[in-house]
Amino acid sequence: MEIHQLEMLRELGALGSVKAVAETLLVTPSAVSQQLAALQRSVDVPLTRKEGRNLVLTEAGQALADAGAAVVSAMADARLAIGAYHGSTVAPVTVSGFHSAGQALFAPLARLLDSPDKPRVLLSDEDVAQQDFPALTARYDLVLAHRMDHSPRWPEERVAVIPLAHEPLDVALSAGHRLAGKETLTAHDVVGEPWVTSHTGYSPADVLSAVAAVSSRELNIVHRINDYSTVAGLVATGSVIGLLPRHTAKPVLNPEIVLRPLQGISTRRRIDILARPENLKRTSVMMVCEALEDIMAGLVSP
């Protein structure tokens, strides 16, 4: 029993002929007859009877047509509700972000959308390995994700990708470090230093592997910490150096830390918004995307 079959039965009760139903619904008479026959096979009582040249509904047919009208009306209400939800500017939007993105973007996003006529954002931090970011789109409307230039692309056959930034990871040093006076650094400059970096499988540990490869020397990794604010605190002591993102680390930097570009190695990461394509059809979701783009543009600008 299908909704369009109930619609045809309802129209038959009102119009009295298959031809009139076909003309009203802009289909062929044979299509109407086939659908009414299929509907008849799904119930145990006759739904129609011939009355002269007209085909009319039996009592059972009229009862089903009346019930079908209620179903059709409910479906119309459901479509209206979905349309209103898709078009709503205040519908809630769930957003997940890796740690440094959350530190840099979440507070400005909450401030920017703190208005009765704007979406209500529900924020979560999810710092996972790169290959696990796309799966988060099953739980969140928008997922802030990052990957290094040399790493595999996002599976764009499954998720939509909105680029936010192409951000370098710079060498972070205490202001009093012997290398702080240099404008740029090379792998050979930094390979022998004691390091704080992320756990294996996360950035910037993969960048440090490239430093070791270019220098043909083993790294002296003292600490493995994913949280950039903790990394910044350790770098400020002068006991270790690290890698910090140039733009999104701004909230955790202080005058005791300087950033220097690392030459000769690709250190750029891509920060993207991942989402299921259907979520981007919602007005409130797109408003949050635009807000994130504006905030990131402000961070990246000099």
Briefly characterize the structure.
The protein is of the alpha/beta class.
Shape: elongated
Q: Which percent bin holds the helix content? A: 25-40%
Low-confidence stretches: none
- In round numbers, the mean pLDDT is 91
β-strand amount = 15-25%
The largest pleated sheet is described as: 7 strands, mixed
What distance separates the N and C termini? 63 Å
Q: Report the CATH C-level class of the largest domain.
A: Alpha Beta
Order of helices and strands: HHHEEHEHEEEEHEHEHEEEEH
Number of strands: 13
Which class of secondary structure composition applies to the elements? alpha/beta
> So what's the oligomer here?
single chain
Give a written overview of the molecule:
39% of the residues lie in helices and 23% in strands. It has 302 residues and is an alpha/beta fold. It folds into 2 domains: 3-87, Arc Repressor Mutant, subunit A (Orthogonal Bundle); 93-300, D-Maltodextrin-Binding Protein, domain 2. The longest helix has 29 residues, at 59-87. The model has no long low-confidence stretch (mean pLDDT 91).
